[in-house]
Amino acid sequence: MKIPYWSVKEAQPHKDYTITVKFHDGSVKLFDAKPSLKIPIYEILKNPGFFMLAKVECGTVVWNDDIDIAPEYLYEAGKII
Fold first, then answer.
1. What is the DSSP code string of 21-60?
2. Spatial CB neighbours of 54, under 8 Å, sequence gap ≥ 6
3. Mean pLDDT by 10-residue block, N- to C-terminus, for the chain (81 residues)?
4. How far apart are CA 9 and CA 52, in angstroms?
5. What is the rounded distance in angstroms from the CA atom of residue 81 to the CA atom of residue 66?
6. Of 1, 21, 52, 63, which one's alpha carbon is 20 to 30 angstroms from that of 12?
7. Domain boundaries, the chain
8. Do 18 and 79 form a contact (C-beta atoms < 8 A)?
């Protein structure tokens, strides 16, 4: 099975609510999560300690079983660094 180019390989959260994301295609982008914090499901991420728990599972960034961000969105909204 071919892995999609936008599949997340690595993610590093930062205290300023950004995440450095490395994708399967080798690109590295900086995703700004601050605009998403206004969406009710993501309000828990306003807690800096919880935000910093971001990790990669199944090709995307997750915090727990309920909170994740679609890898396609991370890829499209992230800024190349």
1. EEETTS-EEEEE-GGGGGSGGGGGGGSHHHHTT-EEETTE
2. 11, 13, 19, 61, 62, 63
3. 93 98 98 97 96 97 96 97 93
4. 17
5. 29
6. 1
7. 8-80
8. no
Q: Encoding tokens for residue 38?
A: 């206004």
Tokens of 3: 């892995």
- 8: closest CA among 71, 55, 52? 71
* Residue type at 52 in one-letter notation: M
- Range 8-80 classified under CATH 3.90.180.10: no
* Tokens 């909204």 -> residue: 77
pTM value > 0.90? yes
Tokens of 77: 């909204």
State how far the Cα of 63 lies from the Cα of 50, in Å rounded to an integer: 8
